[in-house]
Write a structure and sequence with these properties.
Number of strands: 10
Structural class: alpha+beta
Protein name: Histidine kinase/HSP90-like ATPase domain-containing protein
Low-confidence stretches: 1-7, 239-244, 384-399, 674-694, 758-765
Helix content: 55-70%
Radius of gyration: 40 Å
Strand order of the largest sheet: 1-2-3-5-4
Keywords: Membrane, Transmembrane, Transmembrane helix
Length: about 775
Amino acid sequence: MATARAMSVRRRMGAMVSIGALTLVAVHFGDGLTRWSHAHVGWRLGVLALIGIGVVLAVGAFHLPQRLLRRGWACFPILYLVLVSTWVLARSSGDDEPSVWVLEPAAVGFAAVSWAWRTAVGYALIAAALLPLSLFLVDGSVDRQILLRAIIHLGNVAFVVILFAIDTQLRALRGSEREVERNAALAAAARSRAGAHARLTALIHDDVLTALTLAMRTKVVPESVATQAGRALAVLRGAVAPTHGRPGHLHADLGALARDHGLQFVAPLETTRMVLPDQAADALVAACAQAIDNSLRHARPVAGATTVRRRLRLTVEPGRVAVTVEDDGSGFDPDDVAPDRLGLRDSVLARMRAVPGGDARVRSEPGHGAVVELSWVGPVAGHPGPGTGGAAGGANPGPHAGSRISGLATPAARVVLVLVWTTGAVQSALLWHTYPQPAAIGVALLVSLAGALALSTPTDDPLPWRATVVAAAVAPVNALLFLPQLGGAPGERAWLLQTGAYLAALLMVRGRTWAGLASVGATAAAVAVWGGWVGAPAATVSAVLALPVAATAVGLAWSALLRRMLARLTAHRRADAASARALAAEETALARTAAELLTIAQVAGPPLRRVVDLAATDPPRALTAADRMECRIAEAHVRDRLRAPALARTRVAAAVDAARRRGVDVLLLDDRAGGSEPADRAGPADPDHRADRAGLLEDGFTLALAELVDAQEAGSVTVRLLPVGRAVFATVLRSGPGGDERAELDRLGREAHARRDSMASSEST
């Protein structure tokens, strides 16, 4: 399993927090060097160690052992608390606040990754209060700026809620992966079983019908017939063991077929190393054998030729294998093949089309030879080039579509964002007297609250556009309201400007990357204009932009990670639905095939077992006339179930068996296969077509049909169910000493038309 697929949820979360920590270090590194240049050397070494841990965790997020990562995640918040609490002792006279304070969001994030959510929330509160508390214990007072900043730091508890919400969604992602894997495994197993039964169904023609036909035409059972009967019994018991895929398996089996039947075998060298799934390889070999047998039986030399040249060709290309049986014999018109001829229809065409990715085509004209092409599309091991696997085509929705992976669409996230806004409102209230126009600050606070509420709209990601516009407008609107009141020294009053940048960064996390970038870009442009207007130093402008830039970088990084995760999640949802549908369809097909095989075994098993038992006696005993009759009845019944299963499953079957025992030849045909309309084409008032499509036969029809068959004492009876849409549901042609009689029945068994003819050839349906 790939590394990314096996990656734990905690590792993903740690990677997100590590990237955020690295971004904070990069943005604030220069300012931090200035602030800590006079601090105690031991404290500075501790800060370097903290930064080193963050860098190692970010660089090794996807490669280091999980145990080592967990220790690093737990060490970071603990070392951060030690540094913040000891800063009051290690500071120099020029330090106004610890440079490490900017890493508190990362420390809170690592706490959320390492510990339970209650512990992480408690840590966030302690981390925000620790600096003013330590200052109060050492100095007996707390600087006003530190106190105001500490109030803002209380908002870091939002990271805990958001991270745990994302954690919940990521665990759902992992659960979805496991469910997809489980469904895929079940679907593959069902496919394998369904494929095996499909092969067995084709083998009914190759083995069961052949054995019964040979048995009903002989008295003393030769060894070859007994062997054929034993193989047929093994088929009905499902005892045909599939071969395992191995290099050159298909090449070797096809080569053996060509040698045994005198065909020229053409195959490129690379096919000797090719490995195909068992189901595909076995189907290709079995269908090829039947195609060769058909050619040997039916292809005759054309005028001017004395022999028929036959060739077996194996070709392979990226993602596709083709096996072609060619002859230059008399050819035929594929459309003229009678529907009761099962060799081409079932053992070649249907056998290949029953395999996922399999197909078969026949090209032939009278007098121009015949070409049977068998193909399978899928990944071919041992041959370069891509297979055809992968997600189904079609439009791929946005990676955030249909999810809440950002963690911001929950009631808890909304409550926390409002609490964070409250801390800013308290700070603004404490600084109210410092603003030239307090009313504008009040408007900015309301705008910020509206943005927080819009950002936490409880809908799937991406955020709806109306809420996106509201959240994106917070940063530029606040800049217009706030910057004119700053003068040249924003100080701690810059919170309202920074909160808009935070909301823009979270917009990116909710799937609206361009809206978030546009919001931050508009804010940066406003700050640049403000700096030029008031003549603020470049350092002041950079300080105002530092946190918005950091928030934007973190938002971009988190958004990229979430996009990758969501792309997989949506793909897994589609794959899960497809697997579930395929699993249900294959299980249904498997159940039907198993039931059909069981029924055929009940009919064909006893006479086949009788053949084997008689051949095993010493000396071998001959088949009686009754034994041969049972073989004939069983052979005909099996053919009925393949050619007209709807008729073979009704009370008509008993009448047909009785007629055959009287010497009547009965042929059942169903022309409705492939001719039914889609289920939505017939309305509720169209019961006739509904019955046709469902394959159900009315009791009145089966009763009338059984009576017609029972009335035939000699000759033959041909029953044909006509294609859907015909005015007549079925025709019954009875041929006897007195001539032919043709009856046309409707769906309820009522006779629509009847006539007597003197020749059986009048049957024209």
